Amino acid sequence: MKNILTLSLVTLSLTACVNRDNQYDYIETPQPNQVADLQDDDTDGVINARDLCVATPDESEINNEGCGIIITSSNERHLHILFSNDSADIQPIFSSQIRQMVEFLELYPETSIEIQGYASKVGNEEYNLALSKRRAEAVDRRIESMGIAADRVTVVGYGETHLEYDGDDEMSHARNRKVTASVVGYQGDIKKEWTIFSRLPK
After folding, report:
1. Domains in the chain: how many in total?
2. 154-177: pLDDT as tens digits
3. Does 106 reside within a domain?
4. Alpha-carbon span 188 to 50, nearest angstrom
């Protein structure tokens, strides 16, 4: 008896939506009020309304704001050039060091470099100060001749005030006749999203 009563109620509710000609009454589709841009122009899975990075690189792993996750890497480059006694001439053996430094500066255009010149404690202190600066300027000219802008290079001469080797032997003097420089560059790489085509390093 209970089952028959339930079936009757279901039948009654269904027929209530049907008119006498067995046709459903037309209900007009409500007009949506869209308040946000639901499109995803850069197809990164984040709608335009909350996408803060509108040109996400393809295959990049993104955060909730639609921006690619960036991994920061750093590299460092050094110069260490030795000079003959009372000389500011760059010996050919050090040309590759300078070329590598130039390539580094080109790779990291936001970096600058300070070139530091030194001298041994042989001779007059004032003369050695000027000599150390001439050595640094010689390296500076070589770097700028290879396309690095002058405003990215600073030159300083220390003379014999910052000796690395304090001995009076010829080996110590030779090691103190030098130009050094170091620079650190930072670069960001987009972290790519893993796909079925990704390959792990062997």
Report:
1. 1
2. 999 999 998 888 888 999 999 999
3. yes
4. 24
